[in-house]
Amino acid sequence: MADVSPRDETSVQGGHYTARMSRADIPNRYQLAEFGALLAEPARSAMLLVLLDGSARPAGELARVAGIGAATASAHLKRLLDGGLLAVHAQGRHRYYRLADDEVAAWLEAMALPRVPRLPRPQGSDPALCRARTCYRHLAGRLGVTLCDAWLGRGWLRSDGSGLHLATTGAQALAAAGIAEPLPEQLLRLAGRGCLDWTERRLHVGGPLGVAITGAMLDAGWLRRSQRSRALLPSDEGLRRLAQLGVRLDDASH
């Protein structure tokens, strides 16, 4: 399948995000139909969803998740690879499958969004997942969109035609709050993207910048991974440090 991943541009209007795609990035009807066909098979959807945490998994594990046999799983994985939704890493005799990139993850999360604003969150949503989680490898959920909104409002994030960028003042604030790895100067060279949040219906920071910020917060102990889901659990110290950076979860409650 031809590349159907959207490269969205972000802009700030009245203190809020808007997302748009150039016409060159919009899939044609045949690409969109093929993308839909790839997701229409429950087994393939199950494989894709379990990879939303950014992990790479062997075919046997993905087959068990999907509840299918090895031969059937192999056929489905080939379709997903050919369709550009998966990538594979060979290590010795083993092959590990992962999502092709964070734009595929953004599409998968966006597919769950209703096309009307401000509806209640989907019934049965895990409160911990809604509060903070990984979207592929970057921070999503209430914490993710609150961070994005707060840093835009402070001018620590700026938006242009190439995506989202951390301003020097933002890097300085991160350094003062205790983020050392990666060095804030390295964050200045990374581009991010606006990723539409599944539960919040607003944008969080995706792309390489979002991945690096999330990784730094995990390394600093501000966040830790749940053993049961994609949820990220903020530590007390993490909540204190985030509040220092203008990110307060209570301010984001609906």
From TrEMBL:
InterPro entries per UniProt: ArsR-like_HTH, HTH_ArsR_DNA-bd_dom, HTH_Metal-responsive_Reg, WH-like_DNA-bd_sf, WH_DNA-bd_sf
Gene3D superfamilies the record matches: Winged helix-like DNA-binding domain superfamily/Winged helix DNA-binding domain (1.10.10.10)
Span of domain HTH arsR-type: 24-119
Listed name of the protein: ArsR/SmtB family transcription factor
